[in-house]
Amino acid sequence: MTTPIATLDLGRQRYAVHRARRTDLPALVRLLRDDPLGRTREGSDVGPYETAFESVDRDPAHLLVAVRDADDAVVATLQLTLLPGLSRGGATRLQVEGVRVHADVRGAGLGAALLTWAAAWGREQGATLAQLTTDERRPDARRFYERLGWVATHTGMKLPLA
Hints:
By secondary structure, the protein is of the alpha+beta class. The chain has helices at 25-33, 36-41, 46-58, 87-90, 110-124, 139-147, and strands spanning 6-9, 14-19, 62-68, 74-84, 92-101, 127-132. The protein has one domain: Aminopeptidase, CATH 3.40.630. The protein has six helices and six strands; from the N terminus they run E-E-H-H-H-E-E-H-E-H-E-H. Strands 1-2-3-4-5-6 form a six-stranded mixed sheet, sandwiched between helices. The relative contact order is 0.15.
């Protein structure tokens, strides 16, 4: 077992934050599928996930996280990406993607603790702004982020390329 990047202590429960390993991939994909949007958006072919994992894992600008409980089960994930840019005086942004917490542990504070840790990690890496998007069809997620101090300042837009 690898040494955790961090430990999230929620009182009665402790969670270990790890850099995701290839062996975590099935659990991570299950987390991505575990909501109404994910069930229709995520595929069953593991090949594209393996290819994406390899790309993310070898790029030092990315950190794919697997959060483990005391039984070593993966119960949460997110992906962090450092985006250097010219705007805002050459600021580095922390992009937060794919935030998922297993249904069995939602509501216990793990998501809040994980995002608080992610913001601190970004600051340590030199990021001056954290950003994320949340699907408009996930109003509960938006309320969750707002409770943590995230502010909807922009309108996000997407253009399918494939």
